[in-house]
Amino acid sequence: MKATIFSFVLGLVTMFAGAVAAQTCGGVYTVQRGDSLSIIADRLYKNAGMWTAIHSGNSSAIGENPNSIRVGMALQLRCIDGLPTGLPGGRDVQEVAAAATDPAPLVVIPGSADSRRKIAVLTGSDFAPFTDKDLPNGGMLAEVVQAAMEAAAPEQGFAIHWVDDWASHFEPLLSNALLDIGFPWFKPDCASDPETYRCANLKFSESMFEVLMLLFVDTTRPIAFNSDADLEGKTLCRPAGYSTYIFDQNGRNWLKSGHISLKIGDSPADCLELLAEGEIDAAVLNEFLGRKKIKELGLGDRVRVAEGQPISVDGNHMVVHKSHPQGDALLSVFETGLERIKADGTYQRIVDEHMTRVWAEF
Fold this sequence. Notes:
362 residues, D-Maltodextrin-Binding Protein, domain 2
């Protein structure tokens, strides 16, 4: 009789534990034998193409080559659209879903004479999903910065200023300390190219979020990128005004040596249209911008992410001009706040909610 009662209670406990696990999403996945990022994404996210979400969220452990995972490696999987479920360290599904479907709009507080005494943080729009005044809370990294600065609670306060002319951010706004620190900016390989403008003039915080720079290719003329030799003689496209240092960093020297040809498109959409027209071999865009433009242009059947590995994994940083007399202290304030919101779960909550909305668009 006692054995029967024990079995019944054990069954209830097991059912309850399973129900609790089913109500969480995201968490830690341990790599098993035979796994690849696309296999993990297909099984846990029901979408093999979301291997990039796993890669970018674990780039410090994996590195630039997505095939570098090994058995026993612990991967942090973000909660995106309620998946994956049942992993240790997950978040409440309903909590994430409610925040993602009912986002808070951005409230921009007008500047005043009082704001001159505060730490002036600079950003701009039209850089989805990271910063844009039309996005919920101004975009993922705008919300991260707001939360980090609030957590740091600098004595003088802070104010975020939106200037949509990105070309003015380094010169003159930051160089003349008209505003103090700015985000989000990619950091070049300063060890190999210390004289490039950003390396010579800016100091960088730790990365807030890593994004993959991907090759987008024509499905009728697919190419893969597993080694430099795969791109020998290829013509790649980058939009006007976008950085090209990624082609010459980490010892590549693709442009300097003529390993590739570069076509400058008028816009991200122009690069993808040139690809569909057969005038280039691949377009190089960050994964979110590329996927978004593919959908907007109706090129889903024609353009896809190239097999292999990303061109690069780029962090998004807060920057300060080296001439700013309080530059180091300002970056320290921000990094203190960023560390605090990562420790208390606020950072992960913000990223999960924005990533749920972003991937729903694709």
